[in-house]
Amino acid sequence: MAEQIRVVVVGAKGRMGRETVKAIINDEALAFVGAVDRTLDGVPVSQVLGLDAGEVQFSTDLEKTLLETQADVMVDFTTPAVMKGNIDKAIALGVRPVVGTTGMTPEEIAAWDAACKERGIGGLIAPNFAIGAILMMRFAAEAAKFLPHVEIIEMHHDQKLDAPSGTAIKTLELIAQEREKMGQGHPNEHETIAGSRGGDYEGMRVHSVRLPGYVAHQQVIFGGLGQTLTIRHDSINRESFMPGVVLSCKEVMKYEGMVYGLENLLF
Ligand SMILES: NC(=O)C1=CN([C@@H]2O[C@H](COP(=O)(O)OP(=O)(O)OC[C@H]3O[C@@H](n4cnc5c(N)ncnc54)[C@H](OP(=O)(O)O)[C@@H]3O)[C@@H](O)[C@H]2O)C=CC1
Ligand SMILES: O=C(O)C1=N[C@H](C(=O)O)C[C@H](O)C1
């Protein structure tokens, strides 16, 4: 059997982190070797997550964990504020970042791409790991060629820190590649309540709903003469992201540079 890919999960006790630990443990090609989080230093992962995680204990020290475990890959599901330093540390140590945390700028991605290439390692930033979401974005970009009037409504659980979602931003970027920048709605429209028309990305409007009960959902609505088209994706649980995370941990071993978007590994 080929040597297993050694994976450290950062944010391991969080909603996505614990699902990721489970997925790695269940994949024969991957070895779960380290768990980092903000608290729980020294506490066995098995005890907290109720999984068969062997001897692995939580650590609050990312650098130490990456070095001691001889990690090949670091998976990050933390927060927008924390993720950036984690990526810098991983790249500096030659550990390939697979990042699901959202909230970085195009300039930061470009800098990490250069750093990964310099270090001779791969990296992946995926605003969404669910295959259905990747297809939703692809179909939306295609539809925009024919129906350029478009708005996005994304709906998430009420513990989400960033708005709009990383998925909505990626969708807007992909659509923007396919249509001319243009205004939408009436030129003299007026907001009686500020923010009613949502965020503006090159004339496209984006609306973020945050409510208990949701996981991760997005609809892209196109309007044309006498018709509308709605492309909708729903993640009804966090397992939906796991095939993408597992695939990324494997693929990231095969190239150099920071790739932005799981679609680049799939199509
Ligand atoms: N790309 C994708 O497909 C998906 C991406 N996401 C993104 O992933 C990120 C995490 O989401 P989610 O799992 O729901 O969030 P959670 O809040 O459930 O998990 C985040 C974890 O990171 C921990 N953390 C905070 N600070 C640090 C630190 N300094 N070092 C290490 N760990 C830290 C938190 O600890 P504590 O709670 O103690 O502060 C928590 O355990 C978000 O940005 C979200 O948008 C989510 C779903 C899918
Ligand atoms: O915070 C979440 O939950 C999610 N975040 C990602 C995003 O910002 O797009 C992916 C998914 O929507 C779930």
TrEMBL record:
Keyword flag Amino-acid biosynthesis: yes
Secretion signal span: none
Q: Where does NADP(+) bind?
A: 38
| Chain's role | Catalyzes the conversion of 4-hydroxy-tetrahydrodipicolinate (HTPA) to tetrahydrodipicolinate.
- Show the GO cellular component annotation of the record: cytosol
Which reaction equations make up its catalytic activity?
A: (S)-2,3,4,5-tetrahydrodipicolinate + NADP(+) + H2O = (2S,4S)-4-hydroxy-2,3,4,5-tetrahydrodipicolinate + NADPH + H(+); (S)-2,3,4,5-tetrahydrodipicolinate + NAD(+) + H2O = (2S,4S)-4-hydroxy-2,3,4,5-tetrahydrodipicolinate + NADH + H(+)
Q: What class of enzyme is it?
A: oxidoreductase
Gene Ontology MF terms? 4-hydroxy-tetrahydrodipicolinate reductase; NAD binding; NADP binding; oxidoreductase activity, acting on CH or CH2 groups, NAD or NADP as acceptor
Residues noted as binding (S)-2,3,4,5-tetrahydrodipicolinate in the record, renumbered to the chain: 157, 166-167
Name of the protein in its database record: 4-hydroxy-tetrahydrodipicolinate reductase
Q: Which GO terms describe its biological process?
A: diaminopimelate biosynthetic process; lysine biosynthetic process via diaminopimelate
Gene this chain is encoded by: dapB
**EC number from the UniProt entry:** 1.17.1.8
Do you know which SUPFAM superfamilies this protein is assigned to? Answer: Glyceraldehyde-3-phosphate dehydrogenase-like, C-terminal domain, NAD(P)-binding Rossmann-fold domains
**Originating organism:** Tumebacillus avium
Please give the PROSITE patterns that the UniProt record associates with this protein.
Answer: DAPB
Residues annotated as domain Dihydrodipicolinate reductase C-terminal: 132-266
Annotated active site: 156, 160
Q: Which biological pathway?
A: Amino-acid biosynthesis; L-lysine biosynthesis via DAP pathway; (S)-tetrahydrodipicolinate from L-aspartate: step 4/4
NCBIfam families linked: dapB
Q: Which residues form the Dihydrodipicolinate reductase N-terminal domain?
A: 5-129
Listed binding positions for NAD(+) are 11-16, 37, 100-102, 126-129
**What is one Pfam family matched by this protein?**
DapB_C
The lineage's top-level taxon is Bacteria
The answer to whether UniProt assigns keyword Signal to this entry is no
